[in-house]
Q: What sequence folds into this?
């Protein structure tokens, strides 16, 4: 009897869903002998509710499966999108790096004087027909920034060259450690590397060089003292002692301080 009624419910058209109510179908069922065979309307309704719960469970499982499948598709699409975005970012980065490299090479070839060629507007007029310059891979701001970096690099190279000049001059003329710019600038000016650096940079490079020279001389003097316990007269001929001759008070202070610490 129960089996027959459940079979009747399964074959209903339209089929029973989780939204079907007993009142929607009971009058149509009463004409079927399998309904009468159950024995009471209340029992038939109980069997209907039990059957509808199985339908609800099945629909719930189906929804969950559909949601999982949908989320899996969304996740796959997101991952594909991220992969495509990363690929595009890398492609753009490679293109940009290549364009910057090409532009830098162009600046090296055509912009060689940071004094007479430091104007960005003049650079545009000079290079606007060059494919490496007119490429739209880089923005105007990126091109200008690259130009400014190139000009600064040219100035830095000149400053480095002037520092090399100072080092060479010091090696041959032994600059006093307390030398002042006004005292030595005329002697330095004969070398073409002098004129290639502007006045402010010449002074800054000179002062930086002299600071380094003093620090190195003091360090070398301490090294000399660390290797001797002899009297001053026995180290007086050492070049490290002589290097500090232009700073006699500082040399004497370091000498006394060192041997005071030993006693």
A:
């Amino acid at each position: 009897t129960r089996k027959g009624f459940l079979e009747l419910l399964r074959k209903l058209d339209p089929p029973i869903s989780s939204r079907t109510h007993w009142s929607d179908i009971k009058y149509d069922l009463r004409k079927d002998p399998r309904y009468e065979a159950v024995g009471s309307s209340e029992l038939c309704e109980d069997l209907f509710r039990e059957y509808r719960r199985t339908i609800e469970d099945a629909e719930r499982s189906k929804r969950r499966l559909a949601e999982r499948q949908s989320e899996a598709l969304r996740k796959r699409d997101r991952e594909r999108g991220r992969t495509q975005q990363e690929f595009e970012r890398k492609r753009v980065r490679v293109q940009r790096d290549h364009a910057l490299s090409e532009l830098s090479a162009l600046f090296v070839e055509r912009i060689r004087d940071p004094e007479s060629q430091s104007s960005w507007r003049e650079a545009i007029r000079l290079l606007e027909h060059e494919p490496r310059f007119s490429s739209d891979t880089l923005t105007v701001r990126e091109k200008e920034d690259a130009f400014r970096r190139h000009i600064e690099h040219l100035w830095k190279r000149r400053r480095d060259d002037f520092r090399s000049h100072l080092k060479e001059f010091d090696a041959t003329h032994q600059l006093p450690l307390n030398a002042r710019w006004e005292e030595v600038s005329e002697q330095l000016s004969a070398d073409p590397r002098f004129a290639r650096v502007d006045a402010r940079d010449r002074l800054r490079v000179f002062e930086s060089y002299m600071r380094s020279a003093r620090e190195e001389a003091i360090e070398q003097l301490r090294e000399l003292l660390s290797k001797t316990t002899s009297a001053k007269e026995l180290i007086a001929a050492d070049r490290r002692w002589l290097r500090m001759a232009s700073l006699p008070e500082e040399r004497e202070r370091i000498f006394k301080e060192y041997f005071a610490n030993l006693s």
